[in-house]
Specification:
Order of helices and strands: EEHEEEEEEHE
Oligomer: single chain
Shape: globular
Largest sheet: 9 strands, mixed
Number of strands: 9
Number of helices: 2
Low-confidence stretches: 1-18
Mean pLDDT: 85
Structural class: mainly beta
Distance between the termini: 35 Å
Length: 161
């Protein structure tokens, strides 16, 4: 037992979707921009290392308008975020959840993870069923905390898988 190799620890945010149905594939966005949106981007807006794995069910991402995000972010940050310069992401534990914001080519994505050994659950913040991007990491971190519990203004948490 002592000489057995330990398996590497996998971050909870990339854990399997154990026993959960996969989110149906979403068609590319067509039509006018939803309220609060500045632009719609294709999957190419993701950093290359995530293009084929991040929210595989979506084809589009929505960049939120700066004033829309500022209007929603009316509280101060709770606690200190930990930034990983190599992965260009930050995390923050709150209660039994962990927030993640990660830099992409065009903006920052937002996730909420509930770590659990048997049933991990990772959610992505979305508007009109399209994952959101914020222009900067601070706005994304504030928005993540603003949307904890009850999401305002048509935002919702969708499954990562």
């Amino acid at each position: 037992m002592r000489n057995q190799l330990k398996q590497p620890v996998q971050p909870v945010r990339f854990a399997g979707a154990s026993c959960r149905p996969l989110t149906p594939q979403q068609p590319p966005w067509k039509g006018p921009l939803p309220p609060g949106a500045a632009a719609i981007f294709t999957r190419d807006a993701l950093a290359e290392r995530l293009r084929n794995t991040y929210a595989p069910w979506t084809t589009s991402f929505v960049m939120l308008e700066a004033h829309f995000v500022q209007h929603l972010n009316r509280h101060t940050m709770r606690g200190a975020w930990k930034y990983d310069q190599h992965l260009e992401c930050a995390n923050f534990p709150l209660e039994d959840h962990i927030f993640w914001v990660q830099k992409q080519l065009e903006g920052w994505t937002i996730e909420l993870c509930h770590p659990d050994d048997r049933h991990p659950d990772t959610r992505i913040l979305a508007l009109e069923h399209i994952p959101v991007l914020c222009r900067d990491g601070l706005s994304a971190a504030e928005l993540a905390q603003t949307c904890f519990g009850k999401t305002p203004a048509g935002l919702l948490w969708l499954p990562f898988w």
